[in-house]
Design goal:
Number of strands: 2
Shape: globular
Strand order of the largest sheet: 1-2
Radius of gyration: 26 Å
Number of helices: 26
Distance between the termini: 68 Å
Strand content: under 5%
Helix content: over 70%
Largest sheet: 2 strands, antiparallel
Order of helices and strands: HHHHHHHHHHHHHHEEHHHHHHHHHHHH
Amino acid sequence: MQMNALQKWFYGANEEFDYGSILFLESRLPRLVMALVVGATLGLVGSLMQQLTQNPLVSPLTLGSASGAWLALVVCNIWFPALAGDFSTIFALLGAMLTLLLVILISGLRNLSGLPVVLAGMAVNILLGAIATAIILLNEQSSKNLFIWGAGDLAQNGWDQVKWLLPKLMPALLIFAFAPRVLALLRLGQTNAAARGLNIVPMFLLLIGLGLWVVSAVISTVGVISFIGLLAPNIARKLGARTPLAELNLSTVLGAFLLVFTDTLAIWLSSLSLDIVPSGIAAAFIGAPALIYFSRTQLKAQDSLSFTLPKTNFMFKIETIIGVVFVLIGVFFLSIFVSKQVIDQSIVWSLKWPSEFGLELRWPRMLTALSAGAGIGVAGVLLQRLIYNPLASPDILGLSAGATFALVGSSLFLGFNIFEAAPLIAFFGSLLALAILLLLGRRHHYAPSMMVLIGIALTALIEAMVQFSLVRGDENSYVILNWLAGSTYRVSPQYAVILAVMVAILIAFVFLTQRWLTLISAGRVFAQSRGINVGRVFIILLCCVALLCGVVTSFMGPVAFVGLLAPHISVMLGARKVGQQLITTALIGGTLMLFSDWLGQNIVYPSQIAAGTIVSIIGGVYFILLLIKGRTKS
């Protein structure tokens, strides 16, 4: 065996060495070096971004850059595989830069130092994540190798990746050379910095570009590793780093230390579970609670964005309900009669009554979509009225994530079939997430921006669990991924009927509590003066939210944004009273899900896109528009 210089130094003249020595030199040592290099890079870029924006919550993760780079790499590897080897960093850089530009357009340049830019970044994360999931599911065979990459894995087989990455990180030296003076001047304020000769915009773009380049190189090498860039600078400031150069240096060292610690934890967990635990997953489990902690301690008054329900000139009439019902009937007939089919080896649109076999396949999916949309929509109305937050919905606040966490966890560790797991498991998962949310949000009086950020952090924990399930590489990986996309495909007739009955019972109970909800919507003190036991009613109605969310999630998977979209659309139609809004929202939610399911079955026929993914993309765009509207009002 021919030895290189490092091997000769390590082994000396003896060319005969044991397996343990090979494992150390060719796997453990390069993994340690990679952890040090990647952690140092993420810590440096996190500090650079936080100082440029003067925002302690900014990082490649919270700005959406990491998700943009990841989506670009998914596109590159699936549709342009010949370019993946040489141009993966370029693709990742373009994705990161376009995402950052989108986030800045959403939040506005003046809001880079506050929470709005973080909310915009995380909203873009959700949207791009839904798109990436759809692409992966449509290209199962060519995307299997992306699972470990998406989870952030530092495992090495030799020194090739280290040698490939190091030259691409050389621009980081320019950050140390140019950033300290620029950052020191920016601390004086933009006006004073410009008066001292600093050309702010070009230098900002140059430094951001350098930071995104090295982050893109890291992501294209080891995948997405979150939160290191958020944690390291905040810890550096806690330890006393006061000058820009001191913070850059200390963040770099801390980033390297944190990732080595995280990677060691991942290796230890892997040895216990006998499954690969990627470093990115361990980092998410550490970093998501840290994001909640830092956001709670550093939230400023100006970060509480102004969010209100949509304004409308519509007056609610009986004709409004009739109109919504007619739209639902139209979508119902569209789902039955209109579809794509293969005729004479060509894919064409067909307008006809389906065969008996086709109808047996369609009606459970249609019933499931209607029930899920109605249930999540009503849950959104309850949440928005109970905590006086127009952005409240089960998915944004993490309730769906809690149900998902319970179901995926029971599937991974207890061996349950995720499609047959009891709704009770999902209910307790939603209830736990709700309890955490209310406990943490109480300090800021359930401010919309704070609640959304906590919900997003809780969702990040679920993403870590999901990635863990996928990197196992067994036959359940795609089963879980399909379920997570919110698909009606696997729902049997029996389960469709059970879901419809359970949702109908819960919605009927909510209608019986209209008086409670009306009085609480007017204010807790007002409700108490009218003889309502506010505490008990609050708990009962929140349990209804958790039950609706748990039941829908257990049968169909997590459904995003319907709990936000449907209540807002009903308000736009003039449904301001509780009863009006509940019935209109249930109809609209069912219509949205039914249409999304039909569209997902036909838009890329013969392949399919899950209804939950379609709704996530539509709702993600609407959520971004809400953030833009909230920013302009503020």
